[in-house]
Amino acid sequence: MNAINFSSVSKWYGQFQALKNIQLSVSKGEILVICGPSGSGKSTLIRTVNGLESVSEGEISVLGSSIDQVPPGKVGMVFQHFNLFPHLTVLENLTLAPVRTLKLSKLEAQQRAMHYLERVNIAEQASKYPIQLSGGQQQRVAIARSLCMQPEILLFDEPTSALDPETIQEVLDVMIDLANDGITMMCVTHEMGFARKVAHRVIFMDKGEVLESAPPEQLFTAPSHPRTKQFLTQILSH
């Protein structure tokens, strides 16, 4: 069974069509990287998977169900700007949803939170507030927060684009480690080195369409669509 299935999915914002007849399946355990220029529909695409964006046409099934029937926590999301609660400590950020949504006891939630903070190498920061952390540390907290819900699918929306260059690698290292866990991952990113190393498949989007889908080595070395080739020439020359 596919983890995610897009069937003839389109999305409009007024007169602007953000997604155009998307046909795409993501296998269970697959790591799919989505690349393309700004405004190509990448973020809109993954935000439809957890219902943050509704679709105008077509259907999306997630883990064999329609989006509104997927149990809470099965789809996790890591945002570009962390979206941590500033008035809560790191530990409180991680335990909030497991207690409220999964009905874990406070102790169970704290034990789970510490497990995942250790997993992303940031357990010593548990009592701090987000403002006391670097961007890379905040993003690792955000990843740990998603993991506390024990999702089957993790969505990453440009998780390193708001970070300083020296902290990007620490977040990518965590994502590379997670890739070995068998979690289905959809990741919007410009980090082509990460895509090459970790992705099973890379799709290239432009103007709301999936123009190309291929294993990373094939897409990077011998893209079949001229627009993909143009994009990669620009991004890889920097």
Automatic annotation (TrEMBL):
The protein's superkingdom reads: Bacteria
Main location, first listed in the record: membrane
Name the gene behind this protein.
Answer: glnQ
Q: What's in the keyword line of the UniProt record? A: Amino-acid transport, ATP-binding, Nucleotide-binding, Transport
Any GO CC annotation of this UniProt entry: plasma membrane
A Gene Ontology molecular-function term?
ABC-type amino acid transporter activity
Q: Which organism is it from?
A: Photobacterium sp. (strain ATCC 43367)
Supply the Gene3D superfamilies for this chain: P-loop containing nucleotide triphosphate hydrolases
Could you identify this protein by its name? Glutamine ABC transporter ATP-binding protein
Family note: Belongs to the ABC transporter superfamily.
ABC transporter domain sequence ranges = 4-232
The answer to whether keyword Membrane applies is no
